[in-house]
Design goal:
3 helices, mainly alpha
Length: 83
Amino acid sequence: MATGTGNAETALGYEQARDELIEVVRRLEAGGTTLEESLALWERGEELAKVCRRWLEGARARLDASLAAERAADEAAEDADEE
């Protein structure tokens, strides 16, 4: 994340970051911005993509942990049934 933005990006929810990223992409695709504006938009888009990626990685980790716990519970129940 860019220096000077503090925890602003970490405070963004996934949906907020995604929606802002969509707007950044729309503006870049529309053109009509100066080189400096385009670079600033690109950099902001990179920051927002990182925020989204972190949210998605966190969600994946939670899902994996939940599935692992479910499998462990199923295996424990099967072992109990076999005894």
